[in-house]
């Protein structure tokens, strides 16, 4: 016998919008991709402007004035980024970077000193990531585990350990390359090429490494969390 009674809840399951991390965004809002999170192409252009301005200005005016010009441009970029909706804590990072880099340049009395902080940050990062590989505790795996409560035996799963070896090695390679190239350019006092290297080896390579790390995180989550 066919049930013809009216049920107002019948079929609502099919009409309910999907929710959860894997569901499509509602109201046409797309989830920001990696490039968007790094500022997008426009953000990459903006991040390089203070460096370019510093190098150009340093060829025309005194070092303190060149630093002031770079700082003014960094402040202007911060205002633009905040108008575009970025958080203040993220947008202000470029200003702090120019302040510290400029302070080191004044302290050393050399325009190349503007790039010294980045050189040694790259060196320290390469040492830390390489040490984590040697210790068989790749740092991306350590970070992933901490993000998931620190309760997973991720090093006992061979595939998970291998993908984090790859991700951490990618980070080590980029950091080491930055240090070697920039240190050599610093030694020969090639300020213009230092600026070029900083821009070319900055956000683009960071985005590539981030893609590898995200892949390692997803593999780890699928194997150790998604199966539970």
TrEMBL record:
<feature type="region of interest" description="Disordered">
    <location>
        <begin position="1"/>
        <end position="26"/>
    </location>
</feature>
<keyword id="KW-0472">Membrane</keyword>
<feature type="transmembrane region" description="Helical">
    <location>
        <begin position="51"/>
        <end position="76"/>
    </location>
</feature>
<dbReference type="Pfam" id="PF11361">
    <property type="entry name" value="DUF3159"/>
</dbReference>
<keyword id="KW-0812">Transmembrane</keyword>
<feature type="transmembrane region" description="Helical">
    <location>
        <begin position="114"/>
        <end position="135"/>
    </location>
</feature>
<feature type="transmembrane region" description="Helical">
    <location>
        <begin position="193"/>
        <end position="217"/>
    </location>
</feature>
<protein>
    <recommendedName>
        <fullName>DUF3159 domain-containing protein</fullName>
    </recommendedName>
</protein>
<feature type="transmembrane region" description="Helical">
    <location>
        <begin position="161"/>
        <end position="181"/>
    </location>
</feature>
<keyword id="KW-1133">Transmembrane helix</keyword>
<dbReference type="InterPro" id="IPR016566">
    <property type="entry name" value="UCP010219"/>
</dbReference>
<feature type="transmembrane region" description="Helical">
    <location>
        <begin position="88"/>
        <end position="108"/>
    </location>
</feature>
<feature type="compositionally biased region" description="Polar residues">
    <location>
        <begin position="1"/>
        <end position="10"/>
    </location>
</feature>
